[in-house]
């Protein structure tokens, strides 16, 4: 029992030192000891362990101390490990690899008809993408510490099962097991795309650092990742954030969920494209969005009307969010970003007009600048952060 207890305490201390170096680098061992409350001998031992694991390195510089011998400064070792985040959506697969400092190493965006391919084929494509990324020169010599997969649907996160993803046509898919089978013991996280997108916006986006934030996915469907106090709101059963299925117009168009007048059926990208480009095929969403942008830039009245109406419905949904959770910011992601110049004016007006709080409770509505890789990037960052929280084992 004593050995187990000692090992547990040491692992906790290792994570504490690792987190302190992240926050304070470049810093000396003495500074780490002062910040963690651990004695200098213990810190020296822990730092040596972390250096051996390839997580911490000496910078070669020394601290400018007035008393005593200068201390060699420490920083995270950004050369030895990597985490990979992927996102599977209706029409694409995104892959992002980051280092220990969350700096991008590799980023890829691959067209994929995920609904037509089916869950097992998508899992095979994920495994193939992971092999390709692992062979990229930017990851040469690095250990993979974790893989995340973002999916637009309801996820049982502990088991990695996609319980329901209507826009993909998936039900009860053990995606975590399917992906894990192609990896050699690397931890795998399967999570909701909006939730991981919200984490990316909180860390890297235009509203980074705002702890009460909502991220709206701008895909064929609309999901929301909701943060309060910097923590995800999942709800008792994991259904939190399904704003795409807010019923805003009872007699409105039919939604993929089987009901009518949901936000997704009124302002989702699929709905926008059906109205703006009647008769067009829904396969090449990116191409159709680009065509819609061209028409809007040319002043086409039909297109402008469609986008104004979609912006109005989005603004009404933002007002609901303001009234319920009072976010400091709502970020529009995905395909909403190229359409933002025409969506945002009416969206912001409707949010202001329909929120109970004055000035929409101070809520900003902004487009993301993370492109189509927000969820993948957020997932990779979560895996890196999990090294410090204890949700992932430290590499040896």
Spatial shape: globular
The percentage of residues in β strands lies in 15-25%
Relative helix content: 40-55%
Number of helices: 13
User: For the CA atoms, what is the radius of gyration?
Assistant: 23 Å
Kindly name the structural category. Answer: alpha/beta
Major sheet description? 5 strands, mixed
On the 0 to 100 scale, the average pLDDT is: 93
Q: Which residues sit in consecutive blocks of at least 5 with pLDDT less than 50?
A: none
The main sheet orders its strands as: 5-4-3-6-10
Question: How are the elements arranged and paired?
Answer:
Elements: H1 2-24, H2 29-36, H3 40-52, E1 56-62, E2 72-76, E3 81-89, E4 92-98, E5 104-111, H4 114-117, H5 119-134, E6 143-151, E7 154-156, E8 161-165, E9 170-173, H6 175-180, E10 188-192, H7 193-204, E11 213-216, E12 224-228, E13 231-232, H8 263-267, H9 269-276, H10 285-297, H11 301-325, E14 329-332, H12 336-354, E15 364-367, H13 374-389
Parallel strand pairs: 3-6, 6-10, 11-14, 14-15
Antiparallel strand pairs: 1-2, 3-4, 4-5, 7-8, 8-9, 11-12, 12-13
Helix pairs in contact: 1-2, 1-3, 2-3, 7-13, 9-10, 11-12
């Amino acid at each position: 029992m004593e050995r187990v207890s000692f090992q547990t305490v040491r692992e906790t201390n290792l994570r504490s030192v690792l987190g302190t170096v992240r926050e304070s680098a470049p810093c000396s061992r003495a500074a780490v000891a002062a910040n963690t409350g651990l004695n200098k001998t213990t810190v020296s031992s822990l730092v040596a362990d972390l250096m051996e694991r390839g997580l911490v390195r000496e910078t070669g510089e020394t601290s400018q101390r007035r008393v005593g011998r200068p201390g060699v400064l420490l920083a995270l070792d950004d050369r030895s490990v990597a985490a990979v985040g992927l996102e599977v959506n209706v029409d694409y697969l995104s892959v992002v690899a980051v280092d220990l400092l969350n700096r991008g190493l590799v980023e890829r965006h691959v067209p994929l008809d995920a609904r037509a391919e089916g869950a097992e084929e998508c899992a095979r494509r994920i495994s193939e993408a992971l092999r390709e990324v692992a062979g990229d020169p930017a990851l040469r010599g690095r250990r993979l510490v974790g893989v995340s997969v973002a999916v637009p649907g309801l996820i049982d996160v502990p088991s990695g099962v996609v319980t329901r993803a209507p826009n993909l046509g998936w039900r009860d898919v053990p995606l975590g097991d399917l992906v894990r089978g192609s990896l050699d013991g690397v931890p795998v996280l399967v999570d909701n795309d909006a939730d991981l997108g919200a984490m990316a916006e909180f860390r890297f986006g235009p509203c980074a650092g705002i702890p009460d934030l909502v991220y709206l996915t701008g895909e064929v469907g609309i999901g929301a990742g909701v943060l309060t106090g910097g923590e995800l709101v999942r709800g008792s059963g994991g259904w939190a954030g399904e704003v795409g299925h807010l019923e805003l117009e009872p007699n409105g168009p039919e939604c993929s969920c089987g009901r009518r007048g949901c936000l997704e059926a009124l302002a989702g990208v699929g709905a926008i494209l059906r109205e703006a480009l009647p008769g067009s095929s829904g396969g090449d969403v990116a191409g159709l969005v680009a065509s819609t942008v061209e028409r809007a830039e040319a002043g086409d009245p039909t297109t402008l009307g469609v986008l104004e109406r979609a912006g109005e419905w989005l603004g009404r949904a933002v007002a609901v969010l303001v009234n319920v959770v009072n976010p400091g910011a709502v970020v529009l992601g995905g395909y909403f970003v190229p359409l933002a110049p025409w969506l945002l004016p009416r969206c912001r007006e409707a949010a202001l007009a329909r929120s109970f709080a004055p000035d929409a409770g101070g809520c900003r509505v902004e487009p993301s600048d993370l492109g189509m890789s927000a969820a993948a990037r957020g997932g990779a960052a979560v895996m890196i952060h999990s090294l410090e929280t204890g949700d992932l084992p430290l590499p040896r």
